[in-house]
Write a structure and sequence with these properties.
two-stranded antiparallel sheet, 70% helix, 13 helices, 2 strands
């Protein structure tokens, strides 16, 4: 492959954790539940996914278990902020710290102190017949692991669900005006809880992707701030899956360019290259916040007994 094809292929691979975590943030946020626990849920998903895969020898089981654990944390967020009406930011931070601590604890308990780092088989490349043979486009888009294809399907599926179905319209109505939605018979509490739950599952799978595709092992710093960047990316994408996907490609490209420059020894200190994605994020967000529109009820708890929405 040419250098361009290599960079493009690596960018697609690096897009997955950004896109999944951001779609998870978007899903709950469109119903009004704003999570700040992405980084913690992702590292827990990475830990659980790796440990289960290492124990049973199946990446599929590891991914499903990580999704279940992430869904549980999302369910707690949705239930605590909907049924108990606790502060979303406070609960989100509590879940972040709990997930981060639990991830490291589980790894130490299960693996213990070892002289060598345990490894799992990374996900194999699955080339799509005929399409992968197309020059340039084939290697870039149709020669990846299964999670890349599934992530693309999730993004397209969420777009169709949100903007082509009545259920998607109802979901967005809950995040814009829950009192009006409630008056129309839409189950506001149920919508907020299931979207937060599904969002947590997507975040955990985003974390599990990293050891199963990148490293083959788990380290506590494996997420590298991607969870926090996912929050910025969701705002940048205007809470719409198509724009979030475009932003995820941009963020991933910054990551890949910085990594390739570091490996290529361009004479720039590695510490400078590591902050390139964050600087790019800051510059993009300065302009993005001018036009980005967030759900009107984002981060606010709904009380149907209240006189105001």
């Amino acid at each position: 492959m040419t250098e361009f094809e290599t960079l493009a292929q690596l960018t697609v691979i690096a897009t997955v954790p950004y896109l999944l975590a951001s779609l998870g943030t978007m899903l709950g946020g469109l119903a009004g539940v704003f999570s700040v626990s992405q980084e913690g849920v992702m590292v827990l998903g990475a830990s659980v996914g790796f440990l289960v895969s290492y124990g049973v020898g199946s990446n599929t089981v590891g991914i499903l278990t990580a999704a279940a654990v992430g869904a549980l944390f999302g369910l707690v967020l949705g239930w605590a902020t909907t049924s108990l009406r606790l502060d979303q930011f406070v609960i989100g931070l509590a879940l972040f710290f709990a997930a981060t601590g639990l991830a490291g604890l589980l790894f130490r308990v299960v693996v213990g102190e070892t002289g060598s780092q345990p490894l799992i088989e990374t996900l194999p490349r699955l080339e799509i017949p005929l399409l992968s043979d197309i020059p340039v486009v084939g290697p870039v888009l149709f020669s990846h692991n299964l999670l890349v294809y599934l992530t693309a399907l999730v993004a397209v599926g969420l777009y169709l669900f949100l903007y082509r179905t009545r259920a998607g319209l109802d979901l967005r109505a809950v995040g814009e005006n829950p009192k009006a939605a409630d008056s129309l018979g839409i189950a506001v509490a149920r919508t907020r809880i299931w979207t937060a739950t599904a969002g947590g599952a997507l975040m955990a799978v985003a974390g599990a992707y990293l050891p199963m595709v990148y490293t083959g092992t788990f380290t506590e710093g494996i997420i590298g701030g991607r969870g926090w960047l996912a929050i910025a990316l969701t705002f940048f994408g205007g809470w719409r899956p198509q724009f979030i996907a475009a932003g995820a490609l941009f963020f991933a490209a910054m990551d890949v360019i910085a990594l390739r420059a570091e490996v290529g020894d361009v004479g720039i200190p590695s510490q400078v290259l590591l902050v390139v994605p964050y600087v790019a994020t800051l510059l993009v967000m300065i302009f993005a916040f001018r036009w980005a529109r967030v759900p009107a009820f984002l981060g606010r708890n709904y009380d149907r007994e209240s006189r105001t929405a």
